[in-house]
Amino acid sequence: MCMFCAAIPTAAAVGANLNSKQKAARASAQAKGVRLPVEKPIAKITVGVMILLGIGSVIYHSLKLPY
Q1: How many domains does one find in the chain?
Q2: How far apart are CA 63 and CA 42, in angstroms?
Q3: Is the pLDDT of residue 61 over 80?
C-alpha cells in the first residue's frame, strides 16, 4: 500500500479521535458550568486533509503507470 493510501484511514482515525475529545471537553465544561472552550473545525479540516490525500493518491498512481 502506498503512503497516500495508508494515510487516508489514518487521517480519518486521528480526526475522529480529536473531534470526540473536543466534544467531550466541551460537554464536561458545560456540565461543570464553566466557560466553554472555543470549538475548532476539526471535522472540516479532517475532510479537507482526506480529500487532499485522495488527490495525491490519484496523481501518484497515475504517474506510476505502467505497472
Answers
A1: 1
A2: 31
A3: yes
